[in-house]
Amino acid sequence: MNNTLMKPEPQESGFSLVEFRTVLRIAFYLALSDVRARYKRSVLGPLWITLGATVGTFGLGLLWSQLFHMQAEEFVPSLTVGLILWLFISGILVDAPTVFVRQASTIRNVRQPLYIYPLQLVIRHLINLAHNVPILLVVWMFYGISFKDTSWMALPAVAVLTLTLFAATVLLGFLGARFRDLEHIVAMVMPILMFLSPVFYRPSYLTLNKAMIWINPISHWIELVRYPLLGESPSPFLMATNGALLLACSLLAFWLYRKKHRNLVFWL
Amino acid sequence: MIRIAFQDVTVEFPIFNARGMSLRNHLIRIGTGGLIEKDAVRHQIVTALKNVSFELRDGDRVGLLGHNGAGKSTLLRTIAGIYFPTRGRIFHQGKISTLLELGAGMDAELSGEENVIRMGLIQGMTLEAIRDLLPAIVEFSDLGDFIHLPVRTYSAGMSTRLMFAVATCWQPEILVIDEIFGAGDEAFQNRARERMEKLLEQAGLFVFASHSGELIRRYCNRFFRLEHGTLTEVDADAVHV
Predict the structure, then answer these.
(1) Cβ-based neighbour number of residue A141 at 10 Å
(2) What is the pLDDT at residue B115?
(3) In a domain, B190, yes or no
(4) Nearest in space to B160 (alpha carbons), one of B126, B185, B197, B131
(5) Of B5, B82, B84, the CB nearest to A108
(6) Chain B within 8 Å of A29 (Cβ-Cβ)?
(7) Fewer Cβ close by (within 10 Å): the C or N end of chain A?
(8) What is the pLDDT of residue A30?
(9) pLDDT at residue A202 in the model
(10) Which residue of chain A has the CA closest to B149?
(11) DSSP reduced 3-state for B158
(12) What is the ipTM for the molecules in this complex?
């Protein structure tokens, strides 16, 4: 048989930038239409997320500022950012183990690179996150917090967070396809992680052992984005840990993807 | 230039039992040094294709025969690049499209129109191409104003018509088809058959799996028979109508 004329199939050679651009466009459209589908079911549409987060912010803000004996103008903005970021991060992590399993019928029947599904999931949650930005603005105006030069650092911080979460989604997605109970394990662990992360408080409020919260990667992510929004630049410690988390998640995800992307379809 | 070549391709896949799919059981096994939950590591390996070799070129119209479980769908998915071989090599040249189970990418909450775009994108079309083809797809699926309603309001026949219309609206170079005739009512079945025939005529190369010897003899010029994962090429005369 004469094979010299034939090129190996494209998927063998792996990743290409041209392919990535196409895949990104498809993932973006699908994510947008996922969000649309979700709000076909309710009249308020996208505002449901915003409303829920607003009620949560103000209700908890008033209650907890009393409990913690904190000034509301200091506590509420911090809580707002914490809660919005928590919704984003936990939303992705809870969905991640089923990212491939839910798409089983698509994966088995059409040929698309597997990373399209984590991409779609992360973009969908980014769109949800964008819905909550108005609350931030309202709270900032209400308490008269001014945007400083450092505030813009929140954008690269969100970018780093998003990339890390994308890698984490790939990882959890592969593991969740092979081990079906991971979904439940993640759902079970999330409330614990919530109390172990600075959603309702700042690490500096803690009188007990601060090392406890820094075990939780979510703490590092939340603080990285929150500092610039509250007008300070993140500490070198936070930049280092977030860089390390991004690197570690990406390398692990890349390794697992390379090693197991051929096997995944058989696990579904 | 369109070609597909398989060299000694073997496809095996694992079947895990419920224990093997549980991370908790794996952790217990590791934690107890394998005293408990020994079963968690055990899984069966199914050999779906055994040392399959063939070469297909432009103009080959392959009919694939075999009983349920003989490996037809596995072979189709391996040709399509969805399944990967455990051993052996595969060469592809040309853009491959699949007509396996229909409806990938569908979301029942969204309108038919929106779903046309979703399904089209996921099967590899560009947004512009789908938008151009949208009127033709709507007309072919015969859904009328239903196209603006959520797919969950459709009858089974209606959603099948829509899925079929999207799946067959474009012209692939290499086509991999699992038997999908028999969509919708009789009138639609005739149109579906016409559309399929046109699609098959225009495809540079196709592999078509079916239980029906009659259909295969009508459309194909090469005949593969799969038995327990082993492939043999047979003559037209060996294909029973």
Answers:
(1) 9
(2) 94
(3) no
(4) B185
(5) B82
(6) yes
(7) N
(8) 94
(9) 76
(10) A40
(11) helix
(12) 0.89
Q: Whose CA is closest to B229, among B76, B103, B49?
A: B49
For the beta carbon of residue A155, count every other beta carbon within 10 angstroms.
11
pLDDT-wise least confident of A171-185, B6-20, B183-197: B183-197
| Spatial separation of the C-alpha atoms in residues B112 and B76, rounded to whole Å | 28
Contacts of A147-150 with C-beta under 8 Å, sequence gap 24+, read A148/A231, A150/A227, A150/A228, A150/A231, A150/A232, A150/A233
Distance from B82 to chain A by nearest Cα, in Å? 6
Residue A189 CA to residue A182 CA, distance in Å, equals 10
| A12/A21 Cα distance (integer angstroms) | 18
Calpha distance B70→B210 (Å, rounded): 12
Total tally of structural domains belonging to chain A: 1
Distance CA B234, CA B223 (A): 5
Domain assignment present for A4: no
pLDDT for A7 equals 43
Decide if A1 and B90 are in contact by the 8 Å CB cutoff: no
Chain B residues in contact with A108 by the CB 8 A cut-off are: 77, 82, 100-101
In a domain, B199, yes or no: no
Dig out the tokens for A256 from the structure.
């697992």
Distance in angstroms (rounded) separating the CA atoms of residues A29 and A265: 24
- Residue A257 tokens, joined: 């993807």
| Range of the structural domain that residue A104 is part of | 16-267
pLDDT band at B222 (very low <50, low <70, confident <90, very high): very high
**Given its phi and psi angles, is residue B136 left (phi above 0), alpha (psi -120 to 50 degrees) or beta?**
alpha
Does a structural domain hold residue A59? yes
Ramachandran category for residue B93: left, alpha or beta (phi over 0 → left; psi -120 to 50 → alpha): beta
Q: How many domains does chain B have?
A: 1
- Domain hosting B216: range is 3-95+210-238
Give the CATH number of the domain where residue B65 resides.
3.40.50.300
Residues of B with CB under 8 A from a CB of A: 1, 3, 5, 7, 13-14, 16, 21-24, 26, 55, 77, 80-84, 90-93, 96, 98, 100-101, 103-105, 107, 109-110, 114, 117-118, 121-124, 127, 150
